[in-house]
Design brief:
The relative contact order is 0.06. This protein starts with a helix and ends with a helix. The chain has four domains: about 170 residues, no CATH class; about 130 residues, no CATH class; about 60 residues, no CATH class; about 110 residues. Helices cover about 55% and strands about 5% of the residues. It contains 24 helices and nine strands. By secondary structure, it is α+β, with helices and mostly antiparallel strands. The strands form three sheets. A five-stranded mixed β-sheet has the order 2-3-4-5-7. It comes from Streptomyces misionensis.
Length: about 500
């Protein structure tokens, strides 16, 4: 975690030149910066300390970790500090060829791979004497390639979620160098698995605490979904009773299914009581067997729901299941990074939006869902990325106007007032020349009021920002829209219109 070696390189020109060649850790390239503006998805600071002759850059993060980004859009942590990163670069001058290796590959394979790369390097220039001199001067021990590859592998796996690099302009994430790491569901389920184990041990404190905590309860039920045991019936009943406090959740349905799969007809009164908790549960648990049903009928109902909605393989779950649970457990960066990569995939390949059986039609709801998820995480920049693409893909005038209205709101909240004004101008264009009849009667519907309201809110924001002329122009457009609304809709935003008029005087 120290930067002792970096200080020595900065103080001794001979050592700095050795690090730059043949080990391609060039301090002088730091002044040039990276090939593009970048930032961390987590928002932490980055210090450029060196570069290489391929256009790659070495950054130091807030905790001292060294992040390497190449010029092709891939990045990963390579050390917990500059000293560790330099040990790697000097000890494994071909380290970029080893990012696919892990300790599991065994010493023989690792040594053979390193020997092949270094022999190819030696055909062009020396590295052995230079490595010995630099190691001695910097105080580095002579470590085996196997140990260094193990260190590299561990460092690469530390990258996500806190050190994911983004293109600063577009907001897309850099690709991974090396292994992908554990699937999202593993860290998300970890606490639930621990709680499930405590429940199975009969820990009565855990029974109370897990049942009364809605997040722990949900995660524990998910853990039980993928680790099913005959002896779980009583704890599943317990969690099911308490999950009714959250009304109709996916986990309530899951708990009912897990109870039903045991086929104990004595559970029918409990299941029916849960179903009748409120209107939503009555709808969400429809089709449940009635009193007097057989064990086979109960199992058949539960099995059908299990096969259609749940199952026992966590990799089959929609990614939103895991990002929602990650967010609710406070794993904000983990949820954010996963959602960013989901959005990146949709930008690169729209086939993920194709409707089954209708290849020319797009199901764009995942994009609006991503926009909402990012907004809930407080990441308006990514929410705007998702919403812009969503708006661009809408086919009817109604959907375009609605999507652009939401885009304008997000832009206003992000402080991008000129862009918000442009989005509202596009909304007005859709109202004026819709091209289809989907907007018929918009003046009498909620959409009309929402559009007018956003015009007034942006007018106020422009006025507060000292952009009086733009605010007055937008107020004129807002008043024109309000003048076309139904009486009830116009009355509902009368006070907002009055405030906007006062602030633009």
């Amino acid at each position: 975690m120290t930067d002792h070696a970096l200080r020595l390189l900065r103080q001794d020109r001979r050592l700095a030149e050795l690090a730059a060649f043949p080990f391609d850790f060039d301090l002088d390239r730091a002044a040039r910066g990276h090939v593009e503006e970048v930032r961390l998805a987590s928002g932490g600071p980055l210090e450029t300390v060196a570069g290489d002759d391929t256009g790659g850059t070495y950054f130091v993060c807030a905790d001292g970790s060294v992040l390497y980004a190449d010029s092709e859009g891939a990045a990963r942590i390579i050390g917990s500090g500059v000293d560790e990163a330099l040990e790697l670069v000097i000890g494994l001058p071909g380290w970029r060829d080893y990012t696919h290796l892990s300790p599991d590959d065994g010493a023989e394979k690792i040594l053979a791979c390193v020997a092949k790369t270094e022999d190819e390097i030696r055909e062009h220039y020396g590295i052995d004497e230079e490595r010995a001199e630099l190691r001695a001067a910097l105080g580095f021990p002579e470590r085996s390639p196997v140990e260094l590859v193990g260190r590299l592998h561990a460092a690469l796996l530390r990258t996500e979620p806190d050190f994911v690099l983004l293109n600063a302009d577009e907001g897309c994430a850099y690709d991974r160098l090396g292994p992908a790491g554990p699937p999202l569901w593993e860290p998300v389920l970890a606490a639930g698995r621990a709680d499930l184990a405590r429940l199975r041990e009969g820990d009565r404190t855990a029974w109370r605490e897990v049942a009364e905590d809605p997040v722990r309860r949900r995660v524990t039920l998910r853990a039980a979904q993928f680790d099913r045991a005959e002896g779980d019936l009583e704890l599943l009943r317990h969690l099911l009773r308490h999950e009714t406090r959250s009304s109709m959740t996916d986990e309530l349905r899951l708990a009912a299914v897990l109870v039903g799969l045991h086929g104990d007809t004595g559970d029918l009164p409990l299941l029916l009581e849960v179903r009748e908790t409120d209107f939503d549960t009555a709808c969400g648990l429809g089709g449940m067997p009635e009193p007097g049903a057989s064990a086979d009928e109960l199992r058949q109902w539960a099995r059908a729901l299990d096969e259609s909605m749940f199952g026992a393989d966590p990799s089959d779950e929609p990614v939103s299941t895991w990002t929602d649970l990650a967010r609710d457990q406070g794993m904000t960066n983990l949820a954010r990074v996963t959602l960013i990569r989901e959005l990146d995939d949709l930008f690169m390949d729209r086939s993920g939006l194709r409707r089954p059986g209708a290849p020319r039609a797009l199901a764009t709801a995942p994009l609006s869902g991503l926009a909402r998820d990012f907004e809930e995480l407080g990441d308006l920049r990514q929410a705007l990325r998702a919403q812009r693409l969503y708006a661009a893909l809408q086919e009817t005038a109604w959907d375009r106007a609605s999507a652009l209205h939401t885009l304008a709101r997000l832009e206003r909240e992000a402080g991008r007032l000129p862009q918000a004004a442009d989005s509202l101008a596009a909304v007005r264009d859709a109202l004026a020349t819709p091209g289809d009849d989907s907007l018929r009667g918009w003046q009498r519907l909620g959409l009309g009021r929402f559009i007018a309201e956003e015009h007034y809110r942006l007018t106020l924001a422009l006025a507060d920002a000292g952009r009086r002329e733009e605010a007055r122009a937008l107020l004129t457009a807002a008043d024109a829209i309000r003048g076309r609304l139904s009486d009830n809709a116009a009355t509902g935003i009368r006070e907002l219109a009055r405030l906007a008029a006062i602030r633009t005087e």
